[in-house]
Design a protein that fits this description.
The complex is a heterodimer of chains A (176) and B (212). Chain A is an all-alpha fold. Chain A has 10 helices and no strands. In chain A, helix 4 packs across helix 9. By secondary structure, chain B is mainly alpha-helical. Chain B has 12 helices and no strands. Classes of the chains: A mainly alpha (176), B mainly alpha (212). At the A-B interface, helix 2, helix 3, helix 7, helix 8 and helix 10 of A face helix 2 and helix 4 of B.
Chain lengths: 176, 212
Amino acid sequence: MALNTKKRSEVHTMIANEIPALRRYAYLLLHNKDGIDDLVQDTLERALMKSDAWRAEGKVRSWLYRIQYSIFVNQYRKRVKQGNMLADIEGAEVSVLPKQDIELEYKHVAQVIGRLSEKYRNVLLLVAVEGASYEEVSEIMGIPLGTVKSRLARARDELRVEMSKDETAFKNDKAL
Amino acid sequence: MNKKENNIRPFASITEEDLNAYVDDQLDSWNRQKVEAYLKRHPEQQEKVNDYRRYNHLLRSVYANKTSSLYDKDIVPYPVPSRKARNDNFRTMAKVAAVMVLCGASAFGGWLSAHSGQEVTSISAPKGSIAHVAEPRPGAILVSTEERTASASADMVPLAESVQIEEAKNDVVEPHVLELKTETRENKITDGVILDEAMLHEKNPENEVSSH
């Protein structure tokens, strides 16, 4: 059943309010600023087309994220190159960080997260950065709850192993 | 009983997923306490949990730094044109510009033809005709109205009505007809029939000047 004009307007406003979050999530998915506008644009187009189908069940953000993730998987995934976040991270924004050690940690984690497999990275970033619940991640990515938990555990484990390697290498370099 | 079996598990059953759920605050209070008790007995696991929390903080900081600039500028306007429309934007703007130029040209042409037509009438009309009288001065067009009306019916016609008639027939008046009408007007005045005030103005140019 189609929404009336007032209800449709409310849904459109809710969608518009989520544009910053969509841009942020697009960045998490793409790991690069290139393509953010296009991905968000495509998401908004599809969301507006489907706005009548939204029944106000759950968060509108989760619904939009699910749309955006679906578009990403079908149309944008090939654009993402493993580890390409590093070049983006190494910009002026990192240099304004207060302490050198913290800056190095930022770089470490940025490097390692860029090397993670996409399916692990997406789950980890949704949880760690977006603060999504496991159920929301399951809904957004269309995977079972158990898969969310196992991917998250695997992602963190890999992240820790890789971070330990980098930290060890960093300490050795510093000692030399 | 069943619930108790699900919730109370020996420490050995604490899994990596449980630790992650603990870090992400996805456990209920009972299971959270259970994990905390487990961590007290397993410092190496506590260290892992601390690392996970630190990674969460690092990731949030990294992405907060990167994405904060995404909010502040270039927010996509709403409603948003389709990407196809955006790609065709230049072509569309070119079309709009062309239409605007054409509209402007046609409007200017219309204005030009209107003015040039008036001048042609004034120039081509014989001296003493209505066209000559209808030079741009107040009362002129009213005079021609009165004459035509008077010649048609020889009755008194209200001023406003005569103006409407003149506007309706203004573009079909021919010079020789105008001459005849001029004679009619003069005849009427000669006969002592005053059609309206405009005719007095026409008859006495001084009045016309003073009326300005």
